[in-house]
């Protein structure tokens, strides 16, 4: 049953993403409203799918790559909806929904069956670890989008072009502000994700820290974001430098999430998918 | 005494629509006991602007604000002119008048310009333009809607016309025709502003500056600007920023007194020129427009200021020629530097939009010109009718004034309703007699009616002249 809702959500995300892309091209208010509505309904359906899967499987559905990608996409859309409440940046959807859509596409292509839970994942701490880590990374996806938009917009303004692109992107200070806000929320969550992960590792493998590739890369990611937050708070880093750093941090976390699983084998690889 | 034929009147106001009789109202002249043809009033604009005259000539022919009242009453003293208004801004000087005799009036106005400013006519005659009748109406509507401005769409001109009109009202040099013309002009300007995007697309340099500021800072609320030096362009840009929501204006100038002067104009805060760096630390936007031959603001200086600002973004607008700000300043992070040419380039890219909007605006103007011309025809602008209307209008204003002073707590809406109601009463009362007059084919009958009107309402030429004289006092 959950698969139907998942498929329905994927379909709506596709439709909503197209509407958001049409919006950024034609700048028609109706398109952004349509996109937001479709995405919201998609999100509701996706939420139902996840809840059902939780009930059917008897554990939080974050145990294989299909589940993880789907869960991550769900969180990104959730963050988009929350950000939409506070910031009136309609083009945000045009940047965030394609990312969620790509994740959904892979989740769609991967085996969707519910597997029996590997013993190592049967832990009180495991769901917390995954939820915190994913939530942090979903928020950093927003930070990343702000960074990309900032760099484009800044380049436009510095090179004294004021055309179609400038018109479509939000003002610099708004992007910088949202970037900073999201960093302030994302960083503690990432930190919690790593801490709960360490606690879980202690239960599962008997050691808090094993220096396996996933752990090493998450530490690198954490250090990058920590440096960015530190520079923002103390030296007043902002704008371009902060945007570049947010992009680098996101690429690192993307590698931690996907690259490590696919390229570097280690303790975190539990299933082929 | 023979028959004196005054100007043919309303040449451009679709002459064929005007009935034969309108030109030939005969009425007894109380002085000569002979008959003269009645006069059709003609609208007229004589002046020069930024397109026809260089700044030197515009400056010499402009009227200082405190001299306008005197100038207005001097123009009024020409017998060829009935109503007049003087519009004098840095881009244009023109007199709008309702004339009794067009040819003579134009001649008189030219002479007036020359004598009043002590410049020989030869020096500026080529720069003058003349608009008569419908063209004059169109011209005034276009000027008020900022279609004739140097920076098309800039909003200042409407305020300038309003104050020119108010001065004419205070000096009692405006009458029925100019009242109506100007009120329509304000209406047209409003329509153009709300129905087209001529005012808000980034078509002018100062709008581009505002748009850019918004792309950097989001809203302009709680932002501040520093104005270095002074000039038409920079003040215009600053005004746009202020109307865009800028909270604080700092001003500096090599001569501190000038900064104080300008500060009053902008309700800003003057700072001494030596403390410019202090200003740079505080503000978000800097507009520089001095005639300094060297850079006033240099790379290293700004780099240092940026540290003190904790990298808060700053937007420099360099309007000066030669430049006030070293171009390298634009390479510093979080610094955005645009000079006048950059802004112009962006503005030009929007020119297509502007032309589309301008066409829409011209259509609105045309629409309103037609309406005005129709009204003009309907009132039959003969001295008798004007005198009659003005008399009624005076009574209305007097009585309205009494009521309004009795009930000072009336709301704007209530006041407007009273205005509208009293106007309607006059129009309804006059409607019957005026329609009858129009329909009367027989000349003798028309004359009889007109004569009766003049006698019954005591509208003799003499009393008209007297009221004119009273007004001048």
Offer a quick outline of the entry:
The complex is a heterodimer of chains A (273) and B (473). Chain A has 273 residues and is mostly helical. Chain A has helices at residues 2-26, 29-57, 65-86, 92-109, 125-158, 164-168, 172-205, 213-234, 239-263.
Can you walk me through this structure?
Chain A has helices at 2-26, 29-57, 65-86, 92-109, 125-158, 164-168, 172-205, 213-234, 239-263. Chain A is mainly alpha-helical and 273 residues long. Chain A folds into two domains: 1-111; 125-273. The longest helix of chain A is centred in the middle third of the chain and has 34 residues, at 125-158. The mean pLDDT of chain A is 87. Chain B is an alpha/beta fold. Chain B folds into two domains: 15-197 and 356-472, Glutamyl-tRNA reductase, N-terminal domain (Beta Polymerase, domain 2), CATH 3.30.460; 205-346, Rossmann fold (3-Layer(aba) Sandwich), CATH 3.40.50. Chain B has helices at 20-23, 55-61, 68-76, 102-117, 121-124, 134-144, 156-170, 176-195, 205-217, 232-243, 256-266, 276-282, 299-308, 340-349, 351-379, 383-406, 412-439, 443-456, 461-472; strands spanning 26-28, 35-37, 42-49, 81-88, 92-99, 129-132, 224-229, 248-252, 269-270, 285-289, 314-318, 335-339. In chain B, the strands form three sheets. In chain B, strands 9-8-7-10-11-12 form a six-stranded parallel beta sheet, with helices on both faces. In chain B, strand 7, helix 10 (232-243) and strand 8 form a beta-alpha-beta unit. In chain B, helix 6 packs across helix 8. The longest helix of chain B is centred in the C-terminal third of the chain and has 29 residues, at 351-379. At the A-B interface, helix 5, helix 7 and helix 9 of A face helix 9 and helix 14 of B.
């Amino acid at each position: 049953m959950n698969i139907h809702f998942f498929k329905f959500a994927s379909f709506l995300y596709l439709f909503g993403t197209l509407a958001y892309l049409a919006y950024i091209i034609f700048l028609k208010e109706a398109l952004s409203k349509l996109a937001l509505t479709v995405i919201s309904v998609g999100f509701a359906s996706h939420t139902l799918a996840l809840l059902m899967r939780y009930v059917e499987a008897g554990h939080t559905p974050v145990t294989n790559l299909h589940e993880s990608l789907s869960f991550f996409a769900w969180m990104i859309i959730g963050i988009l909806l929350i950000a939409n409440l506070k910031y009136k940046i309609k083009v945000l959807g045009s940047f965030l929904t394609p990312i969620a859509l790509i994740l959904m596409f892979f989740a769609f292509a991967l085996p969707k069956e519910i597997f029996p839970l590997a013993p190592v994942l049967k832990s009180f701490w495991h769901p917390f670890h995954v939820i915190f880590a994913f939530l942090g990374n979903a928020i950093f996806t927003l930070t990343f989008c702000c960074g990309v938009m900032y760099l484009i917009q800044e380049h436009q303004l510095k090179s004294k072009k004021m055309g179609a692109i400038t018109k479509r992107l939000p003002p610099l200070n708004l992007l910088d502000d949202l970037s900073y806000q999201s960093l302030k929320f994302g960083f503690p969550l990432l930190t919690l994700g790593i801490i709960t992960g360490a606690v879980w590792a202690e239960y599962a493998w008997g050691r808090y820290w094993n220096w396996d590739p996933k752990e090493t890369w998450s530490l690198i990611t954490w250090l990058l974001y920590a440096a960015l937050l530190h520079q923002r708070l103390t030296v007043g880093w902002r704008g371009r430098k902060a945007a570049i750093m947010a992009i680098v941090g996101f690429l690192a976390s993307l590698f931690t999430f996907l690259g490590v699983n696919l390229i570097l084998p280690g303790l975190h690889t539990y299933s082929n998918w | 005494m023979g028959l004196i034929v005054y100007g043919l009147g309303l040449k451009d106001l679709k002459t064929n629509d005007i009935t034969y009789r309108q030109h030939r109202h005969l009425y007894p002249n109380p002085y000569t006991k002979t008959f003269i043809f009645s006069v059709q009033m003609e609208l007229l604009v004589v002046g020069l602007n930024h397109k026809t005259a260089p700044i030197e000539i515009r400056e010499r022919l402009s009227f200082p604000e405190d001299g306008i009242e005197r100038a207005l009453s001097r123009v009024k003293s020409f017998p060829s002119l009935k109503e007049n208004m003087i519009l004098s801004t840095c881009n244009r000087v023109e007199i709008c008048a309702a004339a009794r005799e067009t040819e003579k009036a134009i001649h008189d106005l030219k002479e007036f310009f020359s004598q009043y400013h002590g410049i020989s006519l030869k020096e500026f005659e080529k720069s003058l333009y003349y608009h008569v009748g419908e063209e004059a109406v169109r011209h005034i509507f276009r000027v008020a809607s900022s279609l004739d401005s140097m920076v098309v769409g800039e909003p200042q001109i409407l305020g300038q016309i309003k104050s020119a009109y108010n001065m004419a009202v205070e000096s009692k040099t405006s009458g029925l025709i100019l009242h109506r013309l100007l009120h329509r002009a304000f209406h047209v300007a409003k329509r153009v502003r709300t129905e087209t995007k001529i005012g808000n697309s980034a078509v002018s340099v100062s709008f581009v500056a505002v748009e850019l500021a918004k792309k950097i800072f989001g809203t302009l609320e709680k932002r501040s600007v520093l104005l270095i030096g002074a000039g038409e362009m920079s003040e215009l840009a600053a005004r746009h920023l202020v109307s865009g929501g800028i909270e604080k204006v700092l001003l500096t100038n090599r001569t501190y007194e000038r900064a104080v002067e300008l500060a009053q104009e902008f309700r800003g805060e003057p700072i001494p020129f030596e403390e410019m760096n202090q200003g740079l630390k505080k503000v978000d936007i800097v507009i520089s427009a001095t005639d300094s031959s060297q850079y006033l603001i240099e790379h290293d200086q700004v780099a240092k200021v940026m540290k003190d600002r904790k990298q808060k973004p700053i937007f420099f607008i360099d309007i000066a020629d030669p430049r006030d700000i070293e171009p390298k300043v634009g390479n510093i992070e979080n610094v955005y530097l645009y000079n006048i040419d950059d802004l112009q380039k962006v503005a030009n890219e929007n020119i297509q939009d502007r032309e589309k909007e301008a066409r829409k605006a011209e259509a609105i103007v045309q629409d309103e010109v037609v309406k005005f011309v129709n009204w003009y025809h309907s009132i039959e602008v003969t001295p008798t009718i004007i005198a009659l209307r003005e008399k009624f209008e005076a009574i209305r204003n007097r009585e309205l004034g009494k009521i309004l002073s009795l009930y000072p707590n009336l709301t704007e809406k209530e006041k407007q309703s009273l205005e509208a109601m009293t106007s309607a009463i006059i129009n309804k009362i006059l409607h019957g007699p005026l329609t009858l007059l129009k329909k009367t084919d027989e000349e003798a009958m028309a004359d009889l009616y007109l004569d009766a009107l003049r006698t019954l309402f005591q509208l003799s030429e003499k009393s008209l002249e007297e009221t004119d004289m009273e007004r001048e006092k």
